[in-house]
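Possible regression after last week's pipeline update?

I re-ran a chain I had predicted before the update to compare outputs. Posting the input and the new output here so someone can diff against the archived version. Not blocking, just want to make sure nothing changed silently.
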Amino acid sequence: MKFFYSKSILSEDVITDVQTEFHCEDIGICTLSKYHNFEYNHVSLNDDVDWERLVFITFRLAIFNLIVKNLIKVNSIEYKESYLGNLFEFKTRHFLLEPEKKAKIDDLFSSSILNIFNKLYIKQKSKVHLHELITETFDFFIGATDSYLLPGKRVLLKIFDLYVSKYKWLKFEEDYHLLGTHYKYRVWIEPIYIPRLKLQHDSITNSYNVSLKGNISLRNMVKRIDNVLEFNYAKRKPFSDSSGGRFGNSRIEFLIPRE
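New output (post-update):
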């Protein structure tokens, strides 16, 4: 059988050497320190806001936060897969996650990811693939089969909603047509809290950027995060749009290919 297919490990390491000196309790809304008080409606969005890029940043920092806090351990494993007596050879890299210590975490989005990870780990009774965790997190926030004109927008606003429930100084405001239908939406932050978010965002971003330098495994993990996020965007894009409401939800459903 090895003639037809074989698989061997080329390298294996644990992602370490990350900067730990930062303070950030609100990773899920730190991007609002740059884009605060922006307005949007159910179809278009502010041209100055790149929603998908903000989702990239938010996921990267939240997973980085879990690594730094020693709540998850990330194993980076490179495999060589061979077919038909080494006629075809491929190298693949997998990121396998396992729990380290049990502890609570202040940030609501990081905590959500950790809860999802723990459930997957208990269910599978084995290490969790990074792509499984990210996809399961997407499914948790916006559903596994619904499609959206702007999936990144939908995810980010649902993440923001976690913090709206916690903080009185953060809220969604809605304007209405005369007939009572929703017209315009606004994410509002009490101005005195904007510097707080900026300090937190700068603190964790600086630690993250320093950690990336010279850490090939961490950089590879970030690329994997981005690739899986792009996959989850693509599989939720509708063939046509019928979006509406605060979160821009489309009701079209379609078959999603498995990764």
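Follow-up from reviewer: compared with the archived run. The chain is about 40% helix and 25% strand. Marking as no regression found.
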